[in-house]
Write a structure and sequence with these properties.
This protein has about 450 residues and is α+β, with helices and mostly antiparallel strands. It has 6 helices and 28 strands. It has helices spanning about 1-25, 30-35, 300-315, 320-335, 345-370, 370-395; strands spanning about 40, 45, 50-55, 65, 75-85, 90-100, 105, 110-115, 120-125, 125-130, 140-145, 150-155, 160-165, 170-180, 185-190, 195-200, 220-230, 235, 240-245, 250-255, 260-265, 400, 405, 420, 425-435, 435-440, 445-450, 455. The strands form 8 sheets. It has a 5-stranded antiparallel sheet with strand order 12-11-14-17-16, with no helix packed on it. Strands 27-26-25-22-28 form a 5-stranded antiparallel sheet.
Length: about 450
């Protein structure tokens, strides 16, 4: 009896603690005023189900009711659910799913709930709906260092217009970006005429690796360029093409926007009276650091003719034969290293024969209906055919050995050279005009006199 009496204060203490805790966890009006119906996800897209939730603490689910909210036109109700939850506190969780027709920010009115027989209007937090990635096509973005930004999407039509003006001979720097794509499949560009054009940097995405499939609006850099138009007039943007994979898996081809830069004559020195009024001359009046180009003469014209002869001989012999070894040794004596090897007629003819043989074998396999043989022979035959075409194109291309000198942006002797190329270099001839030829060396191109190139037959 005495022990039971001693335990009474302890029992009273426990009872007070429980009653205090129950009082502290009671749902009050001040708590209800702080409630919001919140979006479940940070990224929500039009046309897909978007979830909202409302957590009401200290109340069981059977004491709570929720009505379908009044929604704006186009917003559709999907479903509503209530359940008990228990994390840091316990209470009722109301989950609501809606769909939105278009991208934008929506401000819904309120969710009407009944808690223990009393009605409350709980406000919605604003929700931002993004364009559905499955419906978005990749786009090419061009950003010039002067702040000009141009965007091109597939099949988009734009009014051809000048985006800004610049003086002839002034370098223009820009970066090409890719947006709304998971992979860059291919990327190439062509050298514009009447201009100097250099790729300064190529970024990680050009390696063709698949990016994270999670949607992102980030602009991914592809490459950075220096473009220097040399002739006045309307200069179309350089030809740059991309093939990209969209978020829905389709491939899209993109090209540069249909815009141009207005090139104006450079500001000439008032004391300089030597500027000739010719068709091209005004584009080259005293350009800073471009008016004089030193000519590199490392290999004599006779050595250039010897190199051209050895390359012709290399074309007509077996691959890795004596002619190739002799040519490489002679070029090294002249200080030329890592030069491109010549294609050979032997390789082309061998590939032609193999293609014919595989075609005959394929016909026999089809006749006897051997499916595995058809697949193997077709693969080998197509490979030989493709390599044959590549070899034939290389053999038919016009090339030669340059005896050294400067290249010009236009075929005019009165125009100063814009770049010098050392003698002995292998050049690709793209165009002939009178006594001039337009050649490409690496990523650079320009006009040179025809008699400064020794053709390789």
């Amino acid at each position: 009896m005495i022990c039971a009496v001693k335990k009474i204060p302890f029992i009273l203490f426990l009872l007070c603690t429980v009653l205090y805790a129950q009082g502290a966890q009671k749902l009050t009006y001040s708590i209800i005023k702080e409630l919001d119906v919140e979006p479940v996800s940070e990224k929500n897209y039009c046309g897909e189900e978007c979830g909202f939730q409302l957590k009401i603490p200290y109340v069981k689910a059977d004491s709570v009711m929720a009505a379908i909210p009044d929604l704006p036109s186009g917003v559709s109700f999907v479903s509503l659910r209530r359940s008990d939850y228990a994390d840091e506190t316990s209470g009722t969780k109301i989950e609501l799913w809606l769909t939105f027709p278009d991208a934008g920010t929506y401000r819904l009115r309120f969710l009407r709930v009944t808690i223990n027989g009393k009605f409350y209007n709980i406000p919605f937090k604003p929700i931002t709906i993004y364009e559905n990635p499955r419906n978005m096509l990749p786009q090419l973005v061009v950003e010039f260092d002067n702040g000009t930004e141009l965007i091109r999407q597939k099949n988009s039509r734009q009014n051809v217009k000048a985006v800004f003006s610049s003086q002839a001979g002034t370098p223009l720097y820009f970066t090409v970006y890719l947006q709304y794509a998971v992979q860059l499949v291919s990327f190439y560009w062509n050298i514009p005429k009447n201009a100097l054009f250099t790729e300064l940097e190529r970024y990680e995405i050009t390696k063709g690796m698949l990016r994270n499939s999670e949607f992102s609006e980030e602009k991914i850099p592809v490459a950075r360029f220096e473009w220097q138009p040399l002739v006045t007039g309307n200069a179309a943007l350089p030809e740059i093409s991309l093939t990209a994979t969209s978020y829905n898996g389709s491939r899209v081809e993109l090209s540069m926007p249909d815009s141009y830069v207005q090139i104006v004559p450079p500001v000439a020195d008032e004391n300089d009276s030597s500027v000739e009024e010719t068709f091209f001359a005004y584009a080259f009046t005293k350009l800073p650091e471009k008016s004089a180009v030193s000519v590199k003469q490392a290999v004599s014209p006779d050595d250039c003719r010897t190199i051209a002869t050895l390359r012709e001989k290399e074309r007509n012999e077996l691959p890795f034969g004596e002619a190739r070894k002799e040519r490489i040794a002679f070029e090294r004596q002249c200080g030329i290293r890592n030069a491109e090897n010549e294609p050979t007629y032997f390789v082309r003819n061998t590939l032609i024969c193999l293609t014919i043989i595989f075609a005959v074998f394929l016909g026999m396999a089809v006749m006897i209906k051997k499916i595995p043989a058809i697949i193997i022979i077709s693969t080998l035959g197509i490979s030989c055919f493709v390599m044959m075409i590549i070899s034939a194109v290389r053999l038919s291309s016009d090339s030669g050995i340059f005896t050294g000198g400067g290249i010009r942006a236009v075929p005019e002797e009165t125009v100063d050279a814009v770049k010098s190329i050392e003698s002995g270099r292998l050049v690709k001839i793209e165009q002939r005009a009178g006594g001039w030829v337009y050649v490409r060396v690496g990523t650079s191109g320009g006009w040179i006199l025809e008699d400064t190139v020794i053709s390789i037959r």
